[in-house]
């Protein structure tokens, strides 16, 4: 049995990797994948706690998160595709029209 | 026949105004003429009917009130739209509608070539409405409505030819000068409300002797008199009237001679109970009236514009009316209002006829010898000149003599002397006007000579009617009658109402004869002098002018009153206004308003730097925020 603290530490590491990825990468697709990493870090934490507390609630939450993530991917990819068609780039630092 | 139907008298001209506004363009010139003159003549008919009704009543009951509706009610104070016909307003309403009808008829001829024919009659009818409201009102508030209404129409009609800058300026001047007087009148009315709780004539006069004391009533009456000096062109607010001659001549005759300018005298006579309670105010009125009468008469000596001579003459005659009020002879003042309305309207209309005949020439130095060319105008003008000069058996003689003998009888010998001197000057400058215009040799320009023509019948007929009135109008006021003359007896219910019975100064028959003799004598001296100086040996006038060149300059420049006012009032006021504009308005007010805008703009300018448009930056801020929250809750 792997101790809970290891699992939480792994989840935190994955989450931070996701945060850093969102902050430092320029490619919208990679940012997207980093967001998925953060979601999955959260999933991992849910599952770890569910197993630790012998409760199914955490497991059920994970399904919801995965559903939301799937929907988000569908919409997000559609936006990125349209963005590429419009501006021929997926680098977010080249897309900065919305400013004061 | 039981209802006097007073409301319909002002309503008729108002209806004509509305019809002219709404469908005037479809009526055409003829329709406008019929509408404008018809409504005023109908108002005259209704006024006559109402006055006959009044005259049929016993003397003590000659006081017809007609309530229309309550205008406003605030606490204990209420103001009604209701009309009052008593002997005083009866005289005024007949003058206004009667002389008004004649002048309307005259104006159809005089204005027939003007492109703004319809607008002219619109204003003129609006004036009739306002003036009739003024004289028929039964409270000071409704009177003030009419008072302001005639002021507005005066402004509109002086500036009728608004494309002439001088006319626009004159209209503005009349309006602003009148505002100063109106301000005084309003303050006076506020004091009446404060002390008597009402503005209705009856209630005010009934309450005044008990509610009003000493300085308060003196101040209130002086403030009301300030209003009268504005409307009736007395010192210190007389300067607008001569400039008002920029308006069309029928306007000068109707508004600036016969009716509107006498509103101040009417108001004083209406308020005689209040003035009799304030002897100091009465003295002020008498002195101002006498001073105005003399000053305007002297200025009239040196003017060359025919209408300006008449304008100063009007100011001077109004001074006589105030002189009468000031010495307590309010009836004599109203009597002079009536005779003056006849002969001064006639003089203005006659002058208009001359101007019309000479293709808009107004300078008397380019007239002369017109008598045979304009026989009707000449004859009627001669009657008016004799009337105003105070020649016996003409109307002006009776009224002016009554004023002067009242002044003497009440012990105002100085005022009487000034009045006599003014009468001599009046006779002189009016004869000068007559001689320069109609007698001697022609000094017309060639072109004016060519176009010279007598005026059309629509202009001559009113002249003839007014000439008859100018001659015969005075016989209601024959002196030497037991118990006062007819006009005095007619006004008695008004003039002797109230608690304060005016003191009667009876003169002995011999003294009255002597006074009449003196005034006749000065009238003939004035007339004879003018004939001598301007017709028999014209060298006299020139040599006099050279001998007294300093005095002539003073008179020619009208005592520099306009210049003094300009320096003392207008320029400081302009300087303050410019300061308010440049400093207070542009810097302070605009600074505040713009300052708020600039502050917000600066603040948002700095805030907007945070919005870079880079998704990464926003994400960083979110992450930092999350970390901050995390640290906060972990503490």
Task: Tell me about this structure.
The complex is a heterodimer of chains A (100) and B (635). Chain A has 100 residues and is an all-alpha fold. Chain A has a single domain, classed as Orthogonal Bundle (Helix Hairpins), CATH 1.10.287.3510. Chain A is built from 3 helices and no strands. In chain A, helix 1 runs antiparallel to helix 2 (28-53) and helix 2 (28-53) runs antiparallel to helix 3. The longest helix of chain A is centred in the last third of the chain and has 31 residues, at 57-87. The model of chain A has no long low-confidence stretch (mean pLDDT 90). Chain B contains 25 helices and 2 strands. The longest helix of chain B is centred in the first third of the chain and has 49 residues, at 8-56. Chain B has a two-stranded antiparallel ribbon with strand order 1-2. Classes of the chains: A mainly alpha (100), B mainly alpha (635). Chain A binds chain B through residues 19, 22-24, 26, 31, 92-93, 95-100, and chain B through 604, 607-616, 619-620, 623.
Task: Give a short synopsis of this structure.
Helices cover 78% and strands 0% of the residues of chain A. Chain A has 100 residues and is mainly α. Chain B has 25 helices and two strands.
């Amino acid at each position: 049995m792997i101790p809970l603290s290891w699992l939480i530490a792994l989840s935190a590491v994955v989450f931070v990797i996701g945060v850093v990825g969102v902050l430092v990468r320029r490619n919208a697709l990679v940012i997207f994948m980093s967001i998925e990493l953060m979601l999955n870090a959260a999933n991992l934490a849910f599952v770890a706690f569910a197993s630790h507390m012998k409760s199914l609630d955490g497991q059920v939450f994970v399904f919801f998160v995965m559903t939301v993530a799937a929907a988000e991917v569908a919409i997000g990819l559609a936006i990125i595709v349209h963005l590429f068609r419009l501006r021929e780039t997926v680098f977010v630092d080249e897309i900065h029209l919305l400013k004061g | 026949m039981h209802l006097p139907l007073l409301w319909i008298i002002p309503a008729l001209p108002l209806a004509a105004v509305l019809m002219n506004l709404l469908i005037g363009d479809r009526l055409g010139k003829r329709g406008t003429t019929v509408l404008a003159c018809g409504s005023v003549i109908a108002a005259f008919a209704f006024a006559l009917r109402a006055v006959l009704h009044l005259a049929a009543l016993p003397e003590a009951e000659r006081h017809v009130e007609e309530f229309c509706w309550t205008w406003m009610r605030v606490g204990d104070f209420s103001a009604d739209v209701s009309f009052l016909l008593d002997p005083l307003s009866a005289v005024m309403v007949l003058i206004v509608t009667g002389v008004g009808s004649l002048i309307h008829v005259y104006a159809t001829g005089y204005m027939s070539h003007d492109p703004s024919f319809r607008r002219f009659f619109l204003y003129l009818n609006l004036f009739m409405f306002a003036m009739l409201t003024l004289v028929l009102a039964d409270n000071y508030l409704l009177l003030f409505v009419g008072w302001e209404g005639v002021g507005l129409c005066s402004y509109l009609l002086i500036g009728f030819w608004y494309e002439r800058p001088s006319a626009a300026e004159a209209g503005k001047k009349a309006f602003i000068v009148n505002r100063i007087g109106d301000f005084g009148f309003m303050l006076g009315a506020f004091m009446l409300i404060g002390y008597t709780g009402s503005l209705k004539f009856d209630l005010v006069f009934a309450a005044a002797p008990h509610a009003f004391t000493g300085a308060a009533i003196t101040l209130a009456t002086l403030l009301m008199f300030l209003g009268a000096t504005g409307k009736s062109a007395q010192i210190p607010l007389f300067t607008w009237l001569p400039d008002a001659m920029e308006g069309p001549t029928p306007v000068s005759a109707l508004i600036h001679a016969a009716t509107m300018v006498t509103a101040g005298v009417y108001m004083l006579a209406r308020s005689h109970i209040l003035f009799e309670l304030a002897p100091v105010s009465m003295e002020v009125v008498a002195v101002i009236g006498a001073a105005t009468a003399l000053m305007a008469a002297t200025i009239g000596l040196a003017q060359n514009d025919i209408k300006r001579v008449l304008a100063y003459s009007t100011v001077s005659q109004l001074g006589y009316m105030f002189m009468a009020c000031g010495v307590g002879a309010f009836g004599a003042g109203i009597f002079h209002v009536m005779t003056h309305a006849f002969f001064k309207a006639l003089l203005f209309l006659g002058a208009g006829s001359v101007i019309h005949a000479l293709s808009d020439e107004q300078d008397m130095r380019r007239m002369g010898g017109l008598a045979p060319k304009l026989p009707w105008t000449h004859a009627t003008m001669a009657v008016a000149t004799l009337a105003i000069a105070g020649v016996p058996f003409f109307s002006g003689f009776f009224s002016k003599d009554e004023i002067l003998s009242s002044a003497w009888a009440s012990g105002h010998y100085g005022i009487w002397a000034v009045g006599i001197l003014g009468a001599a000057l009046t006779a002189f400058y009016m004869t000068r006007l007559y001689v320069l215009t109609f007698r001697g040799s022609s000094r017309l320009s060639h072109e004016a000579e060519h176009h010279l023509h007598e005026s059309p019948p629509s202009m001559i007929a009113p002249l003839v009617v007014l000439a008859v009135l100018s001659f015969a109008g005075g016989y209601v006021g024959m002196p030497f009658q037991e118990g006062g003359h007819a006009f005095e007896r007619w006004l008695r219910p008004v003039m002797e109402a109230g608690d304060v019975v005016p003191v009667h100064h009876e003169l002995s028959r011999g003294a009255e004869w002597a006074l009449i003799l003196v005034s006749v004598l000065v009238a003939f001296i004035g007339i004879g002098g003018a004939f001598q100086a301007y017709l028999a040996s014209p060298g006299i006038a020139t040599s006099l002018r050279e001998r007294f060149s300093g005095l002539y300059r003073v008179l020619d420049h009208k005592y520099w009153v306009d210049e003094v006012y300009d320096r003392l009032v207008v320029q400081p006021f302009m300087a303050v206004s410019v300061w308010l504009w440049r400093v207070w308005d542009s810097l302070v007010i605009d600074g505040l308003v713009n300052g708020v805008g600039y502050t917000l703009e600066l603040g948002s300018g700095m805030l907007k730097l945070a919005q870079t448009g880079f998704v990464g930056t926003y994400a960083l801020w979110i992450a930092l925020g999350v970390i901050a929250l995390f640290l906060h809750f972990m503490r």
